[in-house]
Design goal:
The protein has 197 residues and is an all-alpha fold. 72% of the residues lie in helices and 0% in strands. It is built from 9 helices and no strands. It is elongated and about 65 Å long.
Length: 197
């Protein structure tokens, strides 16, 4: 996302999420007793981190938050971390926008994943779980990758031999290839940023 897109996205967050929530009378989240602290959090956390979202999805997030206020009197917005988590369920952030994904792919773990052809499964884990994988997580990710690679080999084998391959299988192959290409782009992005560990 370039600077112009980022600025437009942040403006969208104010227009479709923050202003409507405040307009409905929802109080600032717990812990933000000063207006200046809340405004700084909106400007430095929510607007930049949610700038990737479409107007429609921001409006959906606003509707969800306003229908489910929190706090003792059920009149507050959730804390920022809860808002970000709900936002990711509605519209997942682009992998390139996530510092966590970049950091993992910059580390030895990411290089191992790319060398072992389990980058797409690692990326999916990171997008869904939003945490650095533990050794047990890595084992599970590798098992998922083995299953995916067996399926890929089976589909490619059937396709090469002229057997019937379903459209769903072909779509899955294209989807995994696209995910692998996205992983390669992340690795290149990390190299350009000089972030390799």
């Amino acid at each position: 996302m370039d600077a112009e897109q980022q600025a437009a996205g942040e403006k969208r967050v104010m227009e479709y999420l923050i202003d409507p929530l405040l307009g409905k009378g929802l109080a600032r989240p717990k812990g933000f007793t000063k207006v200046t602290d809340f405004e700084a959090m909106v400007a430095k956390v929510l607007c930049p981190k949610l700038a990737y979202m479409s107007a429609l999805n921001l409006a959906a997030l606003e509707e969800q938050i306003s229908a489910n206020p929190v706090g003792k009197n059920k009149d507050q917005m959730p804390i920022p971390n809860d808002i970000l988590r709900d936002a990711a369920k509605i519209q997942s952030p682009d992998a390139g926008a996530s510092p966590l994904v970049r950091a993992v792919f910059a580390a030895a773990l990411g290089r191992d994943a790319m060398a072992g052809n389990w980058g797409p499964e690692l990326r999916r884990f990171l997008r869904n779980r939003r945490k650095w994988p533990t050794a047990v997580d890595v084992q599970t990710i590798k098992q998922e990758s083995e299953t995916a690679l067996k399926r890929l080999a089976d589909i490619e084998g059937r396709n090469a031999s002229g057997s019937v391959v379903s459209q769903a299988d072909l779509t899955w192959v294209a989807s995994r290839a696209a995910a692998l290409e996205t992983c390669r782009e992340i690795v290149e992005m990390v190299k350009l940023d000089g972030a390799e560990a």
